[in-house]
Amino acid sequence: MLQQTQVQTVIPYWNRWMATFPDVHALVAAPEDRVLKLWEGLGYYSRARNLHRAAARIVGSEAGRFPDTVESLLELPGIGRYTAGAIASIAFNKPAPILDGNVVRVLTRLLALRGDPRTRLPQEFLWARAQDLVTASEGRGDIRMPWGERLGDCSALNQSLMELGATVCLPKGARCEICPVQTRCRARAEGTQERYPETAPRQAPIQKVHAAVVVEQAGSMWVRQRPAGGVNAGFWEFPGLEIPDPVDSVRRHVAGWLGVPEDRLAPLPPIRHAITRYRIQLETFHATGIGLPDVVGSAGRWVDRQELEALAFTAAHRRIVRLLPKAGMPVA
Ligand code: SF4
Questions:
Q1: How many CB atoms lie within 10 A of CB 163?
Q2: 193 Cβ closer than 6 Å to some ligand 1 atom
Q3: Whole-structure pTM over 0.90, yes or no?
Q4: In angstroms, how far is CA 160 from the centroid of its own chain?
Q5: In this predicted structure, what is the pLDDT of residue 320?
Q6: What letter does residue 242 receive in the DSSP assignment?
């Protein structure tokens, strides 16, 4: 849950998840719809599907217990080198390296490492140094936290590296004066802290306009499920399309797509959201009295407002639900 997501955002999701799925068996027994519903709004939905699949793999495995080595962790769906290293070291105190954005910043500054750390050679070099550090920490004794918890040595080393990057070796304004490794830091000695890491600038975001239509009939709305294998697979959404650029009127374009008069589409406030590099403006319309246009397709179903609440929607389409006029109110 914490990949690409802040702790404050994750906490309520974590609490709900753990209350619903207290162990791996409970997760395996749940239908995918239920799993996605609990992840609704958290984004990067392949994480939820991978957790579900990984749980099934663990329960069905010969050992029937959570893997504790990098190699066996890497065999689980959705677990890459970083996550495998984090689990093996933090949870099982194995001398496995980790390399996330914070650790990369600390190490590139400590070593004054030139080159983009996202490219192969600098990255392999950093993995090797992260391995050296965690290997050297092994056998140095457990650390006791102020609140009494014992941390294994490898677990403590990796968590300290991440914490150092998150709280001291900041991207802008590194707090070198309180840094515990300041005397060993080459960037500090050279006064070049902010030059590292030498990451190439990100590509510019791409602007897009999409449209979604809530087709309502006798209190029910037409929704469809996103196909397997694509973006946001398994989530429900209102039908819609991408709007070509340029277009003189989004509403006219959508009316033409549906084959209905333009005045049957009541605009709702637009929604802005982002998916990876894309900055999407989602123009939304509420349509009543138009039946079910052919173009919307037969692969969907009518649901009333109660069912709408129970289905898993992506964050943008959940916001559309919140924008709908209350039942019984005039549409426009
Ligand atoms: Fe980062 Fe400064 Fe510490 Fe070097 S001395 S690791 S630049 S905080």
A1: 13
A2: yes
A3: no
A4: 24
A5: 95
A6: E
Pairing of strands 150-151, 143-144: antiparallel
Span 90-145, pLDDT tens digits:
999 999 999 999 999 999 999 999 999 999 999 999 999 999 999 999 988 877 87
Higher per-residue pLDDT: 151 or 225: 225
Q: Of all protein residues, whose CA lies closest to atom 2 belonging to ligand 1? A: 176
Cα dihedral sign for 276, 277, 279, 282? negative
Distance CA 212, CA 282 (A): 7
**Residue 108: which of 222, 200, 19, 197 has the closest Cα?**
197
Q: How far apart are CA 41 and CA 24, in angstroms?
A: 22
186 contacts 110 by C-beta, under 8 angstroms: yes
The pLDDT assigned to 327 comes to: 55
Closest to 273 (Cα-Cα) out of 18, 43, 11, 56: 43
Q: How far apart are CA 48 and CA 78, in angstroms?
A: 9
- Identify the residue whose C-alpha is closest to ligand 1 atom 1: 169
Residue with token string 């392949």:
46
Distance in angstroms (rounded) separating the CA atoms of residues 267 and 166: 43
User: Is the distance from the beta carbon of residue 169 to the nearest atom of ligand 1 less than 6 Å?
Assistant: yes
Ligand 1 geometric centre to CA of 230 (Å): 42
Do 294 and 275 contact (CB within 8 A), yes or no?
no
